[in-house]
Write a structure and sequence with these properties.
Blueprint: H1 16-35, E1 38-39, H2 40-47, H3 51-63, E2 67-74, E3 77-84, E4 90-96, E5 100-107, E6 111-119, H4 126-144, E7 151-158, E8 162-163, E9 168-169, H5 183-191, E10 195-199, H6 200-210, E11 220-225, E12 229-235, E13 238-239, H7 271-274, H8 276-287, H9 293-301, H10 305-329, E14 333-337, H11 345-358, H12 361-365, E15 368-371, H13 378-388
Length: 396
């Protein structure tokens, strides 16, 4: 082999180092577009690049005003968060609930541009609700100066199990009027956008690891307690869908074998003892007059003994169900969301008691249980994240 055929450092294309740097810059920017603000340590773990390389590239991106940095906390320690600032594309997030619809607009890099929500009648039909959401989106875009051509797509949250093979809502959903309808085609036609449909609990989980304080959690369970009870699971950094796309139906796990018949057809499900509807019914019966969830929260915070007793029973049942999840999957953190979130420790404390009682000790002791910090917009934010994490949207 002659000297000119030998491999040596001087034989490398002098442009290869700059090309490699550009490639690494794009890897970092892609992670920030799809995951929002990340610490430099998290960027190093997710890209496989060294911390020194990450630090140098981030300094360069800051100098060219493509990213910005700001102090943050990670696992209780001070860190520097990195956020993208050069993205113009916009994602839509729409959350359909039992009695509401919420629309948000967010830029890549997870910057909330604006939101709107409106009440819907209980038992609303898909066609009418989709039309209302489309009108809300059009008005929100106009108010924010966002052109329709900037929209990447729309993430859609539905409160019920979704068969991902057909993208239809199945029996047992909070919105029975939506069961069996091809909502994907209806949404695409009404919004003139690619749509990405998911269960609202899944989107709540996605919001926690993108918009929320748990961005570095690889294994997380989000439990939404509302008219129904559902869980979203993030396992090894990704949403878990199973074989059918129907996962996290913890509300239909049996807690009492001789309990009430559930809307799913089984007996003694968690929803029959711990949903917000059950809590309201119990307190309304004791008062002799209907009350709302706001009144439940107010009474609990004022120390009303009957309300606290009911919440204690609810928390114990929820903790029992979560212990089964924890024993099987061992999540790092369990986040509780839904309209009861303002209760904070008044609900978390009995949930933890139920979890510790029924979980393997080492798992119970090492599972963090917290209230969601994103409020009632979590599912809509998760829906926008669903779009941002798709990369290039599919054509419709």
């Amino acid at each position: 082999m002659g000297p000119d055929q030998r491999s040596s450092p001087t034989a490398i294309n002098p442009g290869s180092q700059s090309a490699l740097r550009e490639l690494n810059e794009e890897r970092i920017l892609a992670m920030l577009r799809s995951h929002g603000t990340l610490t430099q340590a998290a960027l190093a773990r997710s890209t496989g690049l060294s911390t020194a390389t990450i630090s140098n590239i981030v300094k360069s991106l800051v100098a060219t005003q493509r990213v910005e940095t700001a102090p943050t906390t990670s696992s209780g320690r001070r860190a520097m968060g990195v956020s993208i600032i050069d993205a113009a594309d916009v994602a839509v997030g729409i959350d359909f609930g039992r009695s509401h619809v919420r629309v948000v607009l967010a830029r890549a890099g997870f910057h909330l541009l604006g939101e709107d929500h409106t009440a819907l009648p209980v038992g609303h039909r898909a066609e009418e609700s989709i039309s209302i959401a489309a009108s809300m989106l059009k008005k929100l875009c106009a108010n924010l100066g966002v052109d329709h051509t900037q929209l990447l797509g729309a993430g859609i949250g539905i409160p019920g199990p979704i068969d991902h093979r057909t993208m239809t809502v199945i029996r047992g959903a909070i919105l029975p009027e939506w069961v069996g309808i091809n909502i994907e085609s209806q949404l695409q036609a009404a919004l003139s956008l690619p749509v990405f449909i998911d269960n609202d609990a899944n989107l709540g989980a996605l919001a926690q690891v993108t918009w929320g304080e748990h961005q570095e959690s690889s294994n997380l369970c989000f439990l939404k307690i509302g008219s129904g009870i559902g869980a979203g699971l993030v396992l090894n950094g990704s949403l878990y869908y199973g074989s059918l796309g129907i996962t996290g139906e913890i509300g239909h796990s049996t807690i009492f074998n001789q309990g009430l018949i559930c809307r799913c057809g089984n007996r003694g499900c968690l929803e029959t003892v711990a949903s917000t509807g059950v809590i309201i019914d119990l307190l309304s019966q004791s008062e002799g007059t209907p009350i709302g969830i706001e009144a439940v929260i107010e009474r609990a915070q004022s120390g009303d003994s009957a309300t606290l007793r009911i919440l204690g029973d609810v928390g114990a049942a929820v903790g029992h169900a979560l212990a089964n999840v924890s024993n099987l999957l061992s999540p790092e953190v369990i986040v509780i969301g839904g309209p009861l979130a303002p209760l904070g420790e008044l609900l978390l404390e009995p949930i933890r008691r139920g979890l510790f009682r029924h979980a393997i000790p080492i798992i119970g002791e090492n599972t963090v249980v917290r209230m969601a910090a994103l409020g009632d917009r979590a599912e809509a934010l998760g829906a926008s994240a669903l779009v941002l994490r798709q990369g290039q949207p599919r054509q419709i």
